Amino acid sequence: MTIKERLEADEKKNLSEFATLSANSKGREVSEDECDIRTVFQRDRDRILHSKSFRRLKDKTQVFLAPDGDHYRTRLTHTLEVSQNARTIAKSLRLNEELVEAIALGHDLGHTPFGHAGERALDSICPLGFKHNEQSLRMVEVLEKDGQGLNLTWEVRDGIVNHQMESMPSTLEGRVVRFSDKIAYIHHDMDDAIRAGILTEEDVPAGIREILGATCGDRLDHFIHDIVTNSLGKNDICMSPETEEAMTELRRFMFRRVYQNPLAKGEEGKAEEMIENLYKYYLQHIDKLPDYLLELEKKGEYREKIVCDYVAAMTDHFAMSTFEEIFIPKSWHY
After folding, report:
1. In angstroms, rounded to a whole number, what is the distance separating the alpha carbons of residues 210 and 180?
2. Which of 276, 271, 280 is closest to 316 using CA atoms?
3. How high is the pLDDT of residue 333?
């Protein structure tokens, strides 16, 4: 028996009847030899962790645009917090931690520079539209490894594309990540807003504080415990009605006070204009794109789509430096 087979046997013995077993995966689009020491979901996690798109998350906006401070979250630290929350829930429910971790680490790989401002800009200017969850799936299926993709399992890809609340993943592990994403950004975006002086704990409505807790840490702990308590022994991942309603109210509060706050979001208009101009430029200068993207056009992909691929993959600072190089005149010198 190989190490992989022993791990699969351990899963069958120890995981919940509702867990997704590695041995039962629906597999990959392209068949390949199995690893003798890792399950399929471990391999997917490792492929994502070592990908270029994962490394670029360190320089992509979470909420605060290119923040001037070492302790504000980036898209990478958001991803790590989602992963940790999801693993805690999965372990408590005896679900497949490796599947949860792979989905969590990959869920935002397609996110644009400047966070949702960049997403809005591409969605508005590209006639094909743009959604970061769909781009995350495209990243792992098509774009990574210079156009080869990562050839991930069906379950991981399903969890990545369906991680937003309006979608529903097919596995409980995907549903754990779906909730973990939401509670992670509510938790850390408030923590960052307090750090930035935009909010204080006392600003949080008393009714929310009474149900969810008086601090960011208390609320995160409450969310995780509530999900675990209400999902034990069920073929579903859910919160109590009281907690889910309070979370919805807290999210509305965050939209009013942070996500739509001119102090926090005052530069987003400039970022959107920058992304739109980069899109227009590369649409007119398609030859400047990397060869692997040009190959996609030769295979019949829409030009607008591959320009989105290139611009969406940029980090905040690469987008700014590229914009400066293209559009800002330089001083003449002899």
Report:
1. 22
2. 271
3. 67
Q: What 3-state DSSP class applies to 74?
A: strand
Q: What is the pLDDT of residue 10?
A: 98
Instruction: Decide: helix, strand or coil at residue 28.
Output: strand
Which 3 state secondary structure label does DSSP give 251?
A: helix
- Residue 252 and residue 239: Cα distance in Å, rounded? 18
Does the predicted TM-score (pTM) go above 0.90?
yes
Region for 109 from its dihedrals, namely left if φ exceeds 0, alpha if ψ lies in -120 to 50, beta otherwise: alpha
- Cα 78 from Cα 116, distance rounded (Å): 14
Start-to-end CA span in the chain (Å): 72
What 8-state DSSP symbol labels residue 61? B
288 DSSP 8-state letter: G
CA distance 48 to 54: 7
Distances (CA, A) of 29 to 107, 164, 169, 311: 19, 23, 18, 27
What is the rounded distance in angstroms from the CA atom of residue 152 to the CA atom of residue 55?
18
Dihedrals phi, psi of 153, to nearest 5 degrees? -70, 160
Q: How far, in Å, CA of 256 to CA of 260, rounded?
A: 6
pLDDT for residue 334: 67
Token representation of residue 218: 């208390």
Take residue 100 and report the two structure tokens written for it. Answer: 């949860």
Query: What are the structural domains, with CATH classification, of the chain?
Result: 3-327 (1.10.3210.10)
* Residues 105 and 133: beta-carbon distance below 8 Å: no
DSSP symbol at 126: -
Question: Would you state the pLDDT for residue 63?
Answer: 83
Long-range contacts (CB closer than 8 Å, 24 or more residues apart) made by 207-211: 207/246, 207/249, 208/246, 208/249, 208/250, 208/253, 211/242, 211/243, 211/246
pLDDT number for residue 89: 98
Amino acid making up residue 225:
H
Task: Name residues of the chain where pLDDT drops below 70.
Answer: 66-67, 333-334
pLDDT of residue 331: 78
**Enclosing H/E stretch for 88:** helix 75-93
> Residue 121 burial (CB < 10 Å; 0-12/13-18/19+)?
buried
